[in-house]
Automatic annotation (TrEMBL):
<dbReference type="Pfam" id="PF11149">
    <property type="entry name" value="DUF2924"/>
</dbReference>
<protein>
    <recommendedName>
        <fullName>DUF2924 domain-containing protein</fullName>
    </recommendedName>
</protein>
<dbReference type="InterPro" id="IPR021322">
    <property type="entry name" value="DUF2924"/>
</dbReference>
Length: 157
């Protein structure tokens, strides 16, 4: 068994007081008032993250987006999250669209979508700004076509 496996297995033998002390050691804050099971899970997560590395940046962005949608306290986040489709795109990606004799662009950032210097939470809101009508933002920017699903969606159908 690896050293990490030994540490994880050893968590089951710790008392609640020992688990709270371990939480304090790992997170450098007092343990929250949660069940012993949740303490074990949080400690196990931190041990694994330190040993194996954290989540991929795209996964972190998606979790932040979901937390904000659920109404969790995410006041530490700098901006509203991107739409689900935009969350699949890498930060730094620029979406382009010609409309009404003009070229329009949207920048995908770590914190969402930037259009004309303003932060937006969805491509559909940006499409509405450009056209004045309700559009599917992903469809407007060519990320999805009418009557078809994204490849990612087909895996869940």
């Amino acid at each position: 068994m690896s050293r990490l496996d030994d540490k994880l297995a050893g968590l089951a033998t710790l008392s609640p007081a020992q688990l709270r002390a371990e939480w304090q050691r790992l997170y450098r804050v007092p343990a929250p008032r949660v069940s012993v099971d949740m303490l074990v899970r949080g400690i196990a997560w931190q041990l694994q993250e330190r040993a194996l590395g954290g989540l991929a940046p795209a996964a972190t962005r998606e979790l932040k987006r979901l937390a904000m949608r659920a109404g969790d306290d995410t006041s530490s986040l700098a901006a509203k999250p991107a739409s689900t489709v935009a969350a699949d795109l890498r930060p730094g990606t620029t979406l382009m669209r010609s409309w009404g004799d003009r070229n329009w662009s949207v920048l995908i950032t770590e914190n969402g979508l930037v259009f004309e210097g303003r932060q937006y939470e969805s491509l559909s809101k940006i499409a509405r700004e450009i056209t004045g009508a309700h559009w599917s933002g992903p469809r407007f920017f060519g990320l999805k076509t009418a009557g078809t699903k994204r490849v990612k969606d087909l895996a869940h159908a």
